[in-house]
Each structure stands twice: as C-alpha cells, then as structure tokens.
Amino acid sequence: FNRASYNGAPISASASDPVFQMMGSEDAAHTNGSEDIYIPVAGAGSGWRNTTHIGCYDSTHDDVSSFPHGPAAVTLYGRGFGLSTSGYVMYQGGHSIIGNSAAEVSAARQFFNFAFMVMTEKVPIVTTSSVPASMVANGVYAVSVTATSMVGGLTYQWTSTAGGTFSNANAASTTFTAPSSFPGSNIQIACVVTDACGRATFHASSVITPVVLPVHLVSFDAKPVQQTAILIWNTSSEENLDNFEIYRSYDGKEFVKAGQSKAEGKGTAIMNYSFIDRSISGEDLVFYKLKMNDFNGGCTWSNTLFVRINNADVQGNAVITSYPNPASRFLNLELASLGLGDLDIEIFDIYGRSVDRIFVPATNLQNLVTLDVSKLAKGTYVINMTDNQTQVQPIRFIKD
C-alpha cells in the first residue's frame, strides 16, 4: 500500500501482515489516553511513508481537518525514518490495552506479534545448509550451514539424534560419521547457531536411513587350498539383496576388493556361495570379510576371517591352527602337529615388544591350548612358539 498517496479512502495493512493477525476489531481498546491518534505534522513531504504499516485508523477524528496529512492512525508500525537499516517502531493509541475484552485481546495480540517479529532479524539467520537427504551406516558425510548475524561472533553446535560423530561439532562446515546402526528410518541432524549476545537459531534437517538389510548370514568360513583360499558362506532372507563383495587384507586393517558374487535372491531359502581367491600366492596370512549390498544402496558387513596360506613350518609339519581371529577374549591353538616337548609361547606386539609369555610343561600339554588375551590392547600381534623340538612359524592374530 502506498501511504503517501492517501486520498481519504479507508486504508489498512494487508491481510498477510505479520503484526495485524488477530480476531475481531481492536478499536475500543484505544479510546481515551493522552495519545489518541497519530498524524504527520504539516510541512514539506508530510504524510505517511510508504513503508509505514497502518492497522487501525480514524477517518472522522476531530483533528483530521486541522492536520489533513492522514489518515489518523490508531495502530501503526514501520522502520525508523523509513530506512531499511533502522529498527522497527510501533505506536498504539489509547490509555491501556490490559484486559480480557475482545478489543483488548486483539490489541495485545498486535503488541506481541510485533515483539516476536522484530526479534527475527536480530537472531542469527541460517541462509543455506547442506546435509545429505539419506545416509547409510558408517558412512562419512560433509555437512555445513551458512549463517548471518547483526552482531556477529557466531558459534556452532552440531547434534544428531542417531549418535555418530562429528569431526568438529563446533565448526560451520564439518564431516559426520554415521553410526554402525540407526535407531529408526528417520533421524535429525541439527546445528544451533548462537551470536555474541546469546541469541540462538536452531536449524534441523531430516535424514532418511535405509532399513536393515534383509539378509541373514548363516555362516562364513575360509580355508586354504594349496596357494589359494576358498571362501564359503550361507545365507537366508534375500528378498532385497543385490550382491556380495569380497574384501581382502594382509594386515587385518586395510582391505581391498578381491571379487564379487551376485546374490540369488531366493527369499527365506538357505543359499550356498563360494569364492576362490587365486591372487595370494606367496602370502602367509590373509584376512577376508564380506560386504552385502541391497538394491536400495544399503549394506552390511560380515565378521573378519583369516587364512594361513603357507601352511608348513621349517620342519615340514603342519602349522598350528588358531581361532577365532580376530579374538576378543580367548584365542585357541590346536597343537596336534607338534612334538611332545614343553611348549614355550611368547606374544609380541607390532613393534616387536614382548607383551606376554606362557610356558606349558609337556605333562600338561593337550591338543588344544586356550590363551587369555582379554587384557591385551586392540591391535595386531604375533605369537612365537617352540616345543623344544620344533620352531613353529609365527602366528599372527588380531585383538578386537
């Protein structure tokens, strides 16, 4: 509305004006009082600016004839001096708007609408944000927000309803590592932006997470066959399963893709799969794990297995078998191929430091020795053994 061109016709703010959102008329709340109405004084350029929002006016007030630069406004607001860089000012005529009449409630509603509106430009404003619309377990994603503030000094705090970790939860731009499992199909990634005065803006993004992969890994095993390794696994519930990816590692940490196998997708039937890895000749110890992919981009991983390829010690005897690997609490050693002497077992870390030593006399020696590795830190270890007759090739295992 162009207030400057007022020609005596009724005038008011538009129906979408954020301040003048109320039910009923507030006229009766503004009677009496020392400031009954507001009219621009006479002079050059007199009249309401086109930036002035007039909500209630009095076109028949006695002073209109003396100050014809109306209308005679009862409630109005706008920026100081009509400048976009100025703050807002509001005027309400009358003596008091405190009460519970319909008019007083409407007038009070205007006041609070105005109070809430002027705060919106003082708090930090998030102008843009970047958060992926979907995530998968253990995925790493870049997230960021761009914010502006009248006072500056902005700080940031990222949070997630699903857990996971932020590389820097107090930066405008950071990376988010999704958790290994999600609490539901929809989560919230949020950032609270706070200015130097303590005013904060909360910005949240909804993220869709894939449902649990509809596959059950019944078994997964790996065995050495001469200078190759054969992997065998069984599954059930493959309604949405696309394929298997086989990953290989020589240290149990850095894995590379060794092959792929298409899933049969036979519902709840038990399915049998195998894969022969012929690219490991000359290796001693090889680790494997399966990645199972669904058609929606979701995935899940199997546990890690190992295979000892060079399965002969310096005397030509079969090497000791160890399991499980990785081990969390106990490591089993099958000793059927050794002689009958006392067994000396020593465990070294990756830096060659001895971390444990076990002596098993021949009188107590069984075909199976169980080592307690629960007190070892997570990492890769090597076991050296001798039974006074045979020096056994070192055995490597992972403590998880």
- Report the sheet-strand fraction: 35-45%
Helical residue percent? Answer: under 10%
General form: elongated
- The secondary-structure element order is EEEHEEEEEEEEEEEEEEEEEEEEEE
The biggest beta sheet reads: 5 strands, antiparallel
- The helix-and-strand class reads mainly beta
Radius of gyration of CA atoms, rounded to a whole number: 38 Å
The helix count comes to 1
Topology, number of strands: 25
Distance between the termini: 72 Å
Mean pLDDT: 80
Q: Name the poorly predicted regions.
A: 1-10, 311-319
Write a brief caption for the model.
The chain has 400 residues and is mainly beta. The chain is built from one helix and 25 strands.
Architecture overview:
The chain has 400 residues and is mainly beta. Helix content is 5%, strand content 42%. It contains 1 helix and 25 strands. The chain has one helix at residues 102-120, and strands spanning 53-58, 72-79, 88-92, 125-130, 140-148, 155-160, 165-166, 173-177, 186-194, 200-208, 216-225, 228-236, 241-249, 256-262, 271-277, 285-294, 299-301, 305-308, 321-323, 330-334, 343-349, 354-360, 368-372, 379-386, 391-399. Strands 13, 14, 16, 17 and 18 form a 5-stranded antiparallel β-sheet that branches. It has a 4-stranded antiparallel β-sheet with strand order 4-5-8-7, with no helix packed on it. The chain has a 4-stranded antiparallel β-sheet with strand order 22-21-24-25, with no helix packed on it. A hairpin with a 4-residue loop joins strand 16 (285-294) and strand 17. It is elongated and about 120 Å long. Residues 1-10 and 311-319 have low confidence and may be disordered.
